[in-house]
Amino acid sequence: MKLIYNPVFLEHDTGMHPENKKRLTSLGELPVTEVKNGEEYLSLFHCPEYIERVKRSCVSGRHLDAETVVSSGTYNAAIHAVGATIMASESGDFALARPPGHHAHVDKSSGFCVFNNIAIAAQYHANKGKRVLIFDLDGHLGCGTVKFFSKSDQVLYWSLHQYPAFPGGGDANEIGEGKGKGYTINVPLPASSGDEIFMDAFQTFLPIAKEFDPDIVGVSAGFDSHQYDLLLDLRLSINTFYKIGKKLTNNFDNIFATLEGGYNIEIFPKCLYNFLDGINHNKMKFEERATDSMIQTYYEYEGRKALAKQSLSKYWKSI
Fold first, then answer.
1. How far apart are CA 189 and CA 301, in angstroms?
2. Fewer CB atoms near the end CB (10 Å): N or C, the chain?
3. Is the pLDDT assigned to residue 62 strictly greater than 90?
4. Set 102, 103, 161, 226: catalytic member
């Protein structure tokens, strides 16, 4: 898995906002890839009215919502973020793109996200008859993604996220609707959850993802679950991102990823490169002391895990 990067993503100028261009410039000089304009793919997920509203807001410089800042260059960056994610999905690479996407809905922005890059790529492959697993590694629930695919049995959405936290939702008993019931796996983690809880949550529900037998796996790769990230209260070490990358590549073929959160620019590069090293079977470059959780946190997690397993057990033999 290689990085797909282009300076066009720096055109999304948000000033001192937490989601700013320093997230990418913190990585130093990167190889530049020519990325496609993904405008033609927007309608796979977004309605025409919303696409036009984004265009107008970028011209005027108005915020799309209370959290989502745009600038004159945002639309161009956003359509190329979509294009880069489609490219990554075809080559098995990592789209180092911004603005991020998993909070964006069909008809509205949310949580720093403009167009839903991962959902567009998933629908692109679903339209070709493929079974798609979306693993949302970001510490926030991908509210736009989970809502869009909640009635689908062709796309399995699996999220490990802090609960309660922005944007709300993502409880263990939210498992999809209609023919998509059972195809949403929400694993709500209590605040202060450490490495051992996160890895247990991954291992517990991995059998469902394998039973689903996806043709392609898309990772919403956010790194805001790290213990020093500013926007959440999870306590992962950088080691866990390596372990998750390695677990994914050992269990699935045809994996791609696109960037979501991760806002501590001193820590973010280490998280990213550890994840890539895990995926690519390389030695882990960065290491820090593993974290653990207080016993009360673990008890709370165990209760939530039991509810999720109970809710999903009637749909999957492996759980």
1. 6
2. C
3. no
4. 103
